[in-house]
Design brief:
With 287 residues, this protein is of the alpha/beta class. It is 47% helix and 15% strand. The protein has an eight-stranded parallel beta barrel with strand order 1-2-3-4-5-6-7-8, surrounded by four helices. Helix 4 (89-101) links the parallel strand 3 (78-83) and strand 4. It binds flavin-adenine dinucleotide. The site of flavin-adenine dinucleotide has 23 residues, from strand 3, strand 4, helix 6 and strand 6.
Amino acid sequence: MRLSEIYKNKEKPIFSFEVFPPKGDNLDKKIENLFSELNKLSKLKPALISVTYGAGGTNRDTSLEIVKELKTHLKQPVMPHFTCVCSSREYIKKYIEEIEELGILNILALRGDEPQDIDVCYRDFKSALELIEYLKNYSELEFAVAAYPEKHPRAITFDDDLNVLRKKQDLGAKVAYTQLFFKNDNYYKFHDECTKKGINIPIIPGILPVASFSQLDRIVELSGVQIDKKTYEYFEKYKDSKEDTIKAGIEIASCQCQKLLEFGARGVHFYTLNKALSSTEVIKNIT
Ligand code: FAD
């Protein structure tokens, strides 16, 4: 189904999952584990499973392998992410043709962050807007875009981000998925500001059920995502027990998702970190 059809359904919340291509040692084993988790996620009949894509095409082959597995074996609705930074026009056209041949209908169109370890970085595209304009010339794909309730870290003002999102909508974006956040109030405020700007595509909250305290610390440090003291300390209390941290993550994410759906969010996009358990439990708790 195309994005525009998926999000037309207003009767029940629309759930989607994000996974990423593993890397490093024992890649075959990691991919095998991921396929097993995808099998579990598939049983929840998600509206979409999205697969991240390294900026500059650094993990192109693994990303495509996962997309193919989801599409051809698991028969899942799959949405590849696609980043344009450092890629040439020809390279992008070829990749898009390849995924359209697989029967993919939707992509998440992104700029991406310039990788440090790349030999050649083409300067054909500077933003997701330029990628979208290019794709529209020859592709029938529908596209989703990224949104930032707590502002993109490099955007100068919050308003700049909103203007970019409005342009993405004007170019035909069907839905926006947000960067992960822990403070729902930031999403509510962002949503209201979007409405004032005339942005009326669904803005789907991106939610991470925390599964490890060190991972939470790393995410907060690297991305600057806001988290209130009480929630942080709640996780800290369980930091020595993996099992208790997972339980706490499910509890906090369930509460967060419940409130977001009550506010009117049309669905939730789960950052699964390649594990099915927490998102599965959250969905059970809120449906
Ligand atoms: P744009 O829409 O071009 O920019 C978004 C906003 O950030 C705009 O307001 C823009 O002005 C501002 N901005 C961006 N860069 C700068 C800059 N240098 N200076 C000033 N302002 C700037 N990354 C990956 O590599 N692979 C993925 O698969 C991936 N998936 C993602 C999925 C989601 C749901 C989200 C929210 C992000 C994802 N990202 C991914 C991260 C994303 O590529 C980065 O956040 C990137 O910096 C911006 O991409 P964009 O498409 O939002 O860019």
